[in-house]
């Protein structure tokens, strides 16, 4: 779902998502929305954050997932045990939400001044599919998103507020993560102009096992595109080209 975000207006953005989910009910398993979809990239306005799970945004997201029977993936500002996070999430129908907080905070955008970095490399599971999440700037750091040999994921989902002036990096990094991790990669960005007058042209994409973009978004297009990802085809691809078996071992030190 590539579309403009109403700056600092959670109520309007939740309403917009409800309309978009209603339009595709029964047609899709998962809906992906841009980074900080309830507010836009308002990094210096922590008062807009909702309490995780008990705040209005969490309650409404769970209700929408249950009503339309669609899992929703995105990120939003939340407070949790007194700390502020840019929280990547999946709200699943009739199930408990899972989350993966943004680990690499964008210092140039003021994010590191207010937010707490996440330390969980959570793999979401939904309908037998394993999903790894990146939140915007995380996409630049391949080690953080590297497949574990014993805990592989099928789809990498990156949600972003990635401005037009740097979109050339997004266009390269998303397929690179798909290639090195032998997975599908889905990236969803916003379009339009935010409250800081930054321009966003989208370039949302979904890369298959051959690095073909099967989403087909146009520049600045505000729309919902439905793509089909075959997990069976992905697993066959990994069997034919088992390059993941030769991957180097590594350790991430979070201290």
Primary descriptors:
255 residues, globular, five-stranded mixed sheet, 4 helices, alpha/beta
Can you give a write-up of this model?
It is globular, with a radius of gyration of 17 Å. About 40% of the residues are buried. The chain has helices spanning about 10-25, 55-70, 165-180, 230-240; strands at about 30, 50, 70-80, 85-90, 100, 125, 130-135, 155-160, 185-190, 190-195, 200, 205. The longest helix is centred in the first third of the chain and has 15 residues, at about 10-25. The protein starts with 9 loop residues before the first helix and ends in a 15-residue tail after the last helix. Strand 3 and strand 4 (about 85-90) form a beta hairpin. The protein is about 20% helix and about 25% strand. Helix 1 packs parallel to helix 2 (about 55-70). It is α/β, with parallel strands linked by helices and about 260 residues long. The chain has one domain: Carbon-nitrogen hydrolase (Nitrilase/N-carbamoyl-D-aminoacid amidohydrolase), CATH 3.60.110.10. The mean pLDDT is about 95. The strands form 3 sheets. Strands 1, 2, 3, 4 and 5 form a 5-stranded mixed β-sheet that branches.
Order of H and E elements = HEEHEEEEEEHEEEEH
- Regions with pLDDT < 50 over 5+ consecutive residues? none
CATH architectural grouping = 4-Layer Sandwich
The CATH superfamily name is Carbon-nitrogen hydrolase
DSSP summary: helix tally: 4
Give the beta-strand count. 12
End-to-end Cα distance, whole Å, is: 36 Å
Number of domains: 1
Helix content: 10-25%
CATH topology description:
Nitrilase/N-carbamoyl-D-aminoacid amidohydrolase
Could you tell me the mean pLDDT?
Answer: 95
Structural class determined from secondary elements: alpha/beta
Main sheet properties? 5 strands, mixed
CATH class descriptor: Alpha Beta
- Name the shape in a single word: globular
Approximately what portion of the residues adopt beta-strand conformation? 15-25%
The Rg value, from CA coordinates, equals 17 Å
């Amino acid at each position: 779902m590539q579309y403009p975000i109403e700056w600092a207006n959670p109520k309007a953005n939740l309403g917009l998502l409800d309309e978009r989910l209603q339009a595709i009910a029964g047609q899709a398993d998962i809906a992906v929305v841009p980074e900080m979809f309830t507010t836009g990239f308002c990094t210096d306005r922590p008062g807009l954050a909702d309490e995780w799970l008990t705040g209005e945004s969490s309650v409404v997201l769970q209700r929408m997932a249950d009503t339309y029977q669609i899992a929703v993936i995105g990120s939003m500002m939340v407070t949790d045990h007194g700390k502020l996070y840019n929280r990547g999430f999946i709200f699943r129908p009739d199930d408990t939400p899972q989350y993966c907080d943004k680990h690499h905070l964008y210092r140039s955008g003021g994010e590191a001044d207010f937010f707490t970095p996440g330390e969980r490399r959570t793999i979401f599971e939904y309908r037998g599919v394993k999903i790894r999440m990146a939140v915007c700037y995380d996409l630049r750091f391949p080690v953080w998103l590297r497949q574990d040999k014993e805990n592989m994921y099928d789809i990498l989902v990156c949600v972003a507020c990635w401005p037009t002036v740097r979109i050339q990096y997004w266009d390269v990094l998303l397929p690179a993560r798909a290639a090195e991790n032998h997975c599908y990669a889905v990236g969803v960005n916003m379009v339009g102009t935010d409250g800081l007058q930054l321009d966003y042209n989208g370039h949302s994409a979904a890369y298959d096992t051959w690095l073909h973009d099967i989403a087909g978004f146009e520049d600045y297009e505000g729309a919902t595109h439905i793509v089909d990802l075959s997990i069976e085809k992905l697993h066959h691809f990994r069997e034919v080209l088992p390059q993941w078996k030769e991957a180097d071992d590594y350790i991430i030190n979070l201290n």
